[in-house]
Amino acid sequence: MASNGHWKGTCEPFCEVDVSPLVEWLDHTFLREETRSATHPSYEDCVSRHCMVTRLDWNGNFGERVQPLVDEIMGAHFPNCRTSLHMLSFLMAGQRINLHADQQALDWIVRVHVPITGDPKAIYCNPPVEHNMEVGKAYLINTKEPHECWNSGTVDRIHFMFDVLGPYGYGVQ
Questions:
Q1: How confident is the model over 7-66, as pLDDT tens digits?
Q2: Residues of the chain with pLDDT > 90: what percent?
Q3: For 110, how many CA atoms within 13 A lie in the half-sphere containing its CB?
């Protein structure tokens, strides 16, 4: 970790994870069986957009479904740290998120991305380096660095992600 309170890398796999319980949950509650793509509504302009779910009560029990994975990752890799902002990110086939950098709290350390579904043509990019995040691995992501993503594939990219915060008082000068 860097002395200024966040990981200085950009995108790096750091552990293997079993996402089969999340895949099964999404298969039964949210994904169309014939295409394994999200059943998303279109807007009036018929353009689908990137969707980010942060409500832990979404779909009945999003928070309960992801908590065992969060506990496993935190216990093994971030003892004494805290989590924040549990999210499901849906990047539909053909969509893009433009280049940006996120503002983070002083006690922020890193964002963890866990691919649940993906496509070889779904790319996370820290210019000029492109990454295809594989299902079955968790990744450290530094969202303070400029990044963008796009999905040129045919399968929607669904990632679970959460922020790791240091122990109380971490990063405070």
A1: 678 889 999 999 988 888 877 666 545 444 444 444 444 455 567 777 777 767 788 889
A2: 46
A3: 21
pLDDT at 30: 62
In this prediction, residue 169 carries a pLDDT of 61
Q: Is 127 exposed, middle or buried, given 0-12, 13-18 or 19+ CB atoms closer than 10 A?
A: exposed
* Residue 91 CB contacts under 8 Å (≥ 6 apart), including other chains: 50, 97, 122, 149, 150, 151, 156, 157, 158, 159
Residue 73 bridge partners (DSSP): none
Q: 3-state SS string over 29-98?
A: HCECCCCCCECCCCCCCCCCCCEEECCCCHHHCHHHHHHHHHHHHHHHHCCCCEEEEEEEEEECCCCEEE
**11-29+50-165 homologous superfamily:** B-lactam Antibiotic, Isopenicillin N Synthase; Chain (2.60.120.330)
